[in-house]
């Protein structure tokens, strides 16, 4: 579970969620007004739109560091017929440091950590907080990174359009990795094997929803380490959150009109590890219970999210 999650989510999705970009095909990045489009305006240039998404996210990174939320992650191991063989879950406390998400596990399979597990987790999180403080925003804490300019070169887009998503106007387009591009590194190589659809909130310039799948098998180290099979897929959701009367956050009107946080994800992965172990997994993540907080951390000793008391 851990190997696949690190590979699948960090390996290629950080390249999309961290930089969120696409290369527009010549002649397809602009379109005329669609029925019901705001003020009859034409669709924006896709390349410029994605640069605006990235710039807007950087502006919100500092605001997001004032909040924490609970992340419930469940992984099911499946047999060849799709029947569940094993289920594991973790309940985590997620918060942001220098734009990086830090995840502290508080429960495993519904059971709170024991004293020994808590001590180990405290040390692990403290080290991550220190590393996050030293790692520039936009660069991953683990794994490889890919610049937005490079993603723009690797991905082609098509069929830009406007749609209503959760009652909000969004700009939607399809994307697919270019097989003819020479790539280097895991994130770039994986990007060539992807296709999907992206929903961008038009007013807030935020990724509201993303659906991605592999349109070809992807091999790590020529398949010696791992292979992710064609059809493996992932979806990701974000929503604006509200902070009424300085109490707990709930989904709705955004904080200061613009704060967005993740609300969930789902993945279906079929692959093979070390050329021997076949893996079928269904992964879900549900994010909720958004709260204002601050981080208390002594380097190498402790790090935790302190939720502010309600007035």
How does this model look, in words?
By secondary structure, the chain is α+β, with helices and mostly antiparallel strands. The protein has one domain. It is built from five helices and 16 strands. The chain has helices spanning 2-17, 46-64, 115-134, 148-154, 186-191, and strands at residues 23-24, 67-78, 84-97, 100-108, 111-112, 155-165, 168-177, 194-201, 206-214, 218-220, 226-228, 233-242, 250-251, 260-273, 277-298, 302-307. The protein has a 16-stranded mixed sheet that branches. Strand 15 and strand 16 (302-307) form a beta hairpin. The protein is globular. The model is unreliable at 1-37, 244-257 and 297-301 (pLDDT under 50).
Overall geometry comes to: globular
Helical content stands at 10-25%
Q: Distance between termini? A: 41 Å
**How many structurally independent domains?**
1
**Proportion of residues in β-strands:** 35-45%
Order of helices and strands: HEHEEEEHHEEHEEEEEEEEE
- Whole-number average pLDDT? 76
Rg:
20 Å
Indicate the structural class.
Answer: alpha+beta
Which regions are unreliable across 5 or more consecutive residues at pLDDT < 50?
1-37, 244-257, 297-301
The number of E-state strands comes to: 16
Helix count, DSSP H or I runs of 4 or more residues: 5
Largest sheet: 16 strands, mixed
């Amino acid at each position: 579970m851990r190997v696949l999650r690190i590979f699948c989510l960090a390996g290629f999705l950080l390249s999309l969620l961290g930089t969120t970009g696409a290369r527009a095909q010549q002649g397809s990045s602009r379109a005329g007004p669609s029925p019901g489009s705001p003020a009859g305006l034409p669709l924006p240039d896709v390349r410029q739109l994605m640069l605006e998404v990235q710039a807007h996210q950087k502006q919100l990174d500092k605001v997001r560091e004032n909040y924490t939320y609970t992340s419930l992650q469940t992984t099911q191991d499946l047999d060849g017929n799709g029947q569940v063989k094993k289920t594991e879950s973790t309940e985590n406390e997620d918060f942001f440091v220098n734009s990086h998400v830090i995840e502290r596990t508080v429960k495993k399979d519904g059971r709170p950590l024991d004293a020994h597990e808590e001590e180990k987790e405290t040390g692990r999180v403290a080290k991550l907080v220190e590393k996050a403080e030293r790692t520039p925003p936009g660069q991953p804490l683990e794994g490889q990174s890919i610049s937005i300019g490079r993603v723009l070169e690797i991905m082609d887009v098509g069929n830009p359009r406007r749609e209503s998503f959760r009652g909000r106007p969004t700009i939607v387009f399809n994307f697919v990795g270019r097989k003819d591009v020479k790539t280097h590194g895991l994130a770039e190589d994986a990007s060539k094997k992807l296709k999907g659809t992206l929903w961008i909130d038009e007013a807030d310039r935020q990724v509201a929803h993303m659906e991605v799948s592999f349109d070809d098998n992807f091999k790590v180290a020529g398949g010696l380490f791992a292979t992710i099979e064609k059809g493996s897929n992932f979806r990701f959701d974000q929503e604006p959150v509200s902070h009424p009367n300085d109490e707990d956050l709930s989904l709705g009107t955004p904080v200061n009109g613009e704060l967005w946080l993740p609300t969930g994800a789902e993945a279906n992965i079929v692959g093979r590890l070390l050329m021997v172990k076949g893996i079928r997994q269904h992964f879900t993540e549900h994010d909720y219970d958004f709260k204002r907080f601050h981080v208390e951390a002594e380097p190498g000793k402790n790090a935790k999210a302190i939720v502010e008391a309600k007035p």
